[in-house]
């Protein structure tokens, strides 16, 4: 199969790795990894392209995407930790609608340990807007509050900390807020959208 080799952000070797890791994680995680195979592939390519350095994640749920990011870093021998922010109070305060499980912090850490990535991961329990995040990151994945205001707030937080890529999840018809935020973010100086694929949108720092 040929990927988008002429694009600004080619989906190359890390993409199929991400797809495979997504299904491995899905098979044994407590709860679930969110997103679709294509989005797991894109996340893996973002982590690979960002290279050495820390990764920020807003909205972690059971930890599936954080595990995937950590396993990609390990696969490519990339340095860096994962900083995850999530209130750890279920799926937006309720039991997860797909697995029926009420997420808590214990489950998150059980999942990290099951995949042997606990030493790479830091969890900040709370909502991103109530959290102070410091540090420098090469990449970020915004997958928490999907309202327009929520995405824009997380974008503002991330853009001051991230040197290479910011990935938005849920850029699809079900999440108008993400689409509206995307239009605003697309006007942002110093960043350009390099890929929309599956329900993922990748922004790259251009200056
Ligand atoms: C779509 S799920 C994340 C899925 C996860 N990234 C994955 O791929 O498996 C969104 C998570 O963000 C959490 N969340 C909601 N509002 C948030 C906020 N303001 N800050 C951080 N996390 C938030 C939700 O409770 C939920 O756990």
Describe the structure.
This protein has 207 residues and is an alpha/beta fold. It has one domain (14-205): Vaccinia Virus protein VP39 (Rossmann fold), CATH 3.40.50. It is built from six helices and seven strands, in the order ααβαβαββαβαββ. It has helices at residues 14-28, 37-50, 64-75, 105-114, 148-159, 176-185, and strands at residues 55-58, 82-86, 121-125, 137-142, 162-168, 191-197, 200-205. A seven-stranded mixed β-sheet has the order 3-2-1-4-5-7-6, sandwiched between helices. β1 (55-58), α3 and β2 (82-86) form a beta-alpha-beta unit. The model has no long low-confidence stretch (mean pLDDT 96). S-adenosylmethionine binds next to α3 and β2.
Radius of gyration from the alpha-carbon trace, in angstroms: 16 Å
Helix % is: 25-40%
**Number of helical segments with 4 or more residues:** 6
SSE pattern: HHEHEHEEHEHEE
Q: Supply the CATH architecture.
A: 3-Layer(aba) Sandwich
User: How many E-type strands?
Assistant: 7
CATH superfamily heading: Vaccinia Virus protein VP39
Query: What is the CATH third-level topology name?
Result: Rossmann fold
Report the CATH C-level class: Alpha Beta
Which structural class do you get from the secondary structure elements?
A: alpha/beta
Q: How much of the polypeptide forms β-strand, as a percent range?
A: 15-25%
Number of domains: 1
Spatial ordering of strands, largest sheet: 3-2-1-4-5-7-6
Mean pLDDT: 96
Low-confidence stretches: none
The kinds of small molecule bound in this structure are: S-adenosylmethionine
Overall geometric form: globular
Distance, first to last CA: 33 Å
